[in-house]
Fold:
Amino acid sequence: MTPEIITVLSIIGVAMVLFLSEKWSIDTVSIMVMLAFMVTGILTFEEGVAGFSNPATITVGAMFVISAAVFRTGSLNTINILFLRMGRKNEYAFMFTLMVFSGVLSAFINDTAVVALLMPTVLKIAKDTGIAPSKLLMPLSFGALMGGVCTLLGTSTNILVSGIAQSHGAKPFGIFEMSGMGLIFLATGIAYMMIIGQWLIPKRQPSRNISETFDMGDYITEIFVTKKFEDTGKSIKMSRLFTDYNMDPIQVIRKTGEVINAYKYTVIREEDTIRVRCDKDTLTQIRNIQGIELKIDLKLKDEDFRSQGHKLYEMVVPPNSSLINNTVKSIDFRRTYPGLTVLAIRHRNDILHTKLKNTKISAGDVLLVRGDEEMVDQLKGNDSLLIISEDTSPRMVWKKIAFTIFIVAAVITVAAFKLLPIPIAAIFGVVLLILFKSISAEDAYRSVDWKVLFMLAGILSMGTALEKTGAANLLATTLVEQLGNFGPRTIMSVVFLVTFLSTNIMSNNATAALLAPIAISIASALDVSDRPFLMAVTFAASLSFMTPMGYQTNTMIYTPGNYKFTDYLKVGTPLNILFWIIATFCIPIFFPFDK
Structure:
């Protein structure tokens, strides 16, 4: 083993630890890996940054814009209307239809966007019908994952592995090359969820009141101001009650019964009732302040938080949100989103009510926000916060819808018949969508998940380093020496197993970028076609059901569905094992080992 190989494997090993620890975002770690290869001399500058111009990176960026145009024009609103009608009739028929539609849509549109589009409707149906959201959200996510492997455009992972194959001299994947095997996975997965999965999914019914769901009654207190209070006539900002103690004022109820929003310049008057959020320690500290009376253990409903056009909303933080790894204080939430106040944050199974300003926000967190309805309307379609407590479907514009669908169909057709390379066809489609105002240039820039692009550009350097130093050949040769007597099908099965186990605890794209070059080297060592090995990596990297962090859509549904980590293991592990068995026997049929 040469010093260069030791260096490459050491850098990748550290990167994997950082991926798992989530201390830094995956795109940051990917760029650090790229820099490490260049600093150590493993890669030249040109080789290190080549990922930014890779066809996979460019295609993924263009597809983000195309998916956003489909969403923003309201092209899929009719599906939501259909779901609302069907969901009220039969739970199982709706679950089946939901998985089919999410699978079909995810074959051509970014799967995260599909889940973001359908989740508010699914939650509304659950609320109207009494169906537990947990029974519907996992099928939604799993359906989107399985649909994503039906075409090349389904996920960024498919495009990434195709780009790696092309960079190693192999043919890039065709748009529908994966479809036969992908449809088998989709059909099998839907059958599993309908026959077995639905009985393994827990039935957890949340409260119909958002405030009860977040246990707000334990953290909201009313302070009654008597004539003896020394700060009567002062603004909230100037009152020692709020400057000296950790309390967030929410509303002020005047003695006339008028309910107004509490701002820092709101003047405190005699006989006001000030509704505040604070913890029990603070209550103990202020209990004996002269001139105030406390009303604790309130039984509040959502209607109690309404005033002057304000009400409660649940907002989930999607995986591409700019809020991730920031705090409410660091992003200056109230200034960034005027009229919105964060009352609580639900992270996995924990609900945080206090010290919110310094709480780091993670993907999948649900924020309980009290906000102005006009401001919330402006947030619809925002990529940083997804409103899940009400329908957020954009208004339909039929001319734009028709043109957008035509462009999407044209891009797919042109690429499928190889009239233009896929990256060029996708870029051409983006330009037309912007020129004909299906999406504005500003929205196009905002729709691109730049973290994903930087991640792709960074992790592509791993494959280059593995190939250049011979590390990929070394690992492949070792595996072939140990398992070569069992034949290429067994080795391909092991590759699929290692990939799906890795992608459930590490980024699917990072897993694919690491294992695709090794898969190519394995095929070379066996003197067989590299296609079945590359497809094993591609399918396994996207079909991750065993953990909430295994794929972005699994993370998105975790908190709204009130799931636990073990729920994914119970439902997802049998499905992953089933797909492993199917892949072992079926991938060589669609993608023979013969060169």
Summary: The mean pLDDT is 85.
